[in-house]
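Per reviewer request, we include the raw input and output of the structure prediction for the construct analysed in the revised manuscript.
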Amino acid sequence: MKSALKVLNSSVVIVGRIKRHSDYHHVREANFSWHNRNKTKKDFCELCGDSHDLVLHHIVPISWGGAFFAPDDVITVCKNHHSILHKRIKKVLNKDLLIQYLSPYANEIIKKSKSTII
């Protein structure tokens, strides 16, 4: 929600307590562990077959509504392919497109943020 408000240039400030271990590093670590336990993480890059420096890549980016723990939304890739994929995504999913998608819901987003304490 904070990202949506920022993109829409809203002056609304969301305040609240920060959950323990809610930083990006801990969330990604939990995500990686979950995919290991549920056998969705592979032992090789699904694009080139390499078995070194593997990471999970979310097909629908988390910032665009992708789910951390959705088995159908991740692929295992090497770091090289991961950076290539993100460069491609950055060209397609840019700030202008996000504003275009969020603009019809601007009033609703601002209203919810004013009535919600996170």
